[in-house]
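SAMPLE LOG
Freezer: B-3
Tube label: C17
Construct: single chain, 551 aa
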Amino acid sequence: MKAALLTTEIRTEEDLVLVRQRARQIAELLNFTAHDQTRIATAVSEVARNAFQYAAGGRASFGIEGEAPAAFVIRVTDHGPGIADVEAVLSGRYRSKSGLGRGIVGAKLLMDRFQLASDPGKETTVELAKTLPKDAPMPTPAILARIVAELAGRVAPSPMEEVRYQNQELLQSLEDARQAAERLQEQLDFTRAMAGSLVEGVIAVNLEGHVTFFNRAAEGLLGWANRDALHRPLGEITRFAAVDGSAVACPLDEVMRTGQSISSDEHVLLRTDGSWLQATYSSAAIRRGDCTTGAVITFQDVSDRKRAEKERVGFIEDLQRTARFNEMFVGVLGHDLRNPLSAITTSASLLLRRADSEPISKPATRILAGAERMVRMIDQILDFTRIRLGTGLPVDAKAMDLGDLTGAIVAEFQGEGGTQQIQYECSGDLAGTWDRDRLGQVLSNLMGNARHHGESGTPICVGIDGQSTDFVMVKVNNRGAIPPDLLPVIFEPLRMGKSRHAGSKGLGLGLFITQQIVAAHGGSIGVESNEASGTTFSLRLPRTPNSLKAQ
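STRUCTURE (predicted):
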């Protein structure tokens, strides 16, 4: 909407008084507060005085414009010499002895919207606007007509009355300013106290780079006293450098130039004694409205933290080197133990074949069994070492039948006796490209694990399903459940559950190596365990060599 309320010519000093009165009266009728009435009247008065002083008069028009929320709009137009540099006047950079620019900048600050258009030598128009209060009635035609009628009926006060009214406004403004100054001082005192109590150093500078604030922590960190640091250029207080000692620009200069905050923990600051303080800092611009008036930086000493981080990194590297050496040592030791174990196994086997009495065959059997168990343990250690050193498990994939391999291993376990029978079922095509020895190791580990941890007298069920064209499924089930706390980490190395049979504990590497062998074939392994259905390990083995991981 756009509705005109009143137009007043500006030709004499009395007209200036009238324009101010009308601005305040209309603001009152539009439900503006007394404070806003004064702000509007003062802004309009300053602009009208400029038109009178520099253009020998003009015209002030008052109206309502816009949709919810609408605004009280005043336009002051003159046909004087105009303003040559509007941008300089609006920014406050222009100064003159007569005061040109000061009134305009002040009026701009008092209003919600301010526009100035000037065509030198022809016309200048200043538009001021203040958004209507939330409690103001909707400016309907009837309400606007009532406002126009009431303005027409009001008797203009005498200049003396206007002076008295302005004096009252001035006194009220002075009181408001005093109270605002007290609140501002309280906030300033609180801010200074808070900044002074921080453990971080805080330094503020003005646009010229001179120190305007220097807290107690900054004194301790840089070695300057507050009284000596204030009002000095920051470059005399400290300098910034990279950790390697190369000079860098002061971050506060960049902050004031761009208005963007800067943070870093890779710089050092110079102390008064010539030493360098390794610090982390954050800097930001100090702004007043749209203008940057300075910058502030907060910083703290991180020398101890950086030193501790460096020591921690070195300690971790030492541990990694030690762990790698230990793993290599275990691998070499396991490899070298194979020769004497081979001699023991060969000798025990020869002795067992030539034994003609139990006193000789019995200990030979124990020696052979113990040696074979040691061979299996050393094989696990070597596999574990390969995995930890990142060389991976060697996999020699060839065409084979998984059913034949499983049947042979089941037969071996059945031949060893025991109270647990193995029930073996297979279906579908069981051919694929795998490493026979490695999969034999997987099946032996899972069946041995089922025997050692399953319930005595209950069967072990082994099933192979080859009905899919892409993969083969293998399942090994035994009665008995894995403890809930062990189940999430069952495939981690050196995790050993409690066996139901004495002497069955191994190194805790079997399931870890089993998982790695399956992964080397591009497959996956999982486990489900509960008291109702027992424990089931499930393998999914892709048939094709393309599924194998590169070694």
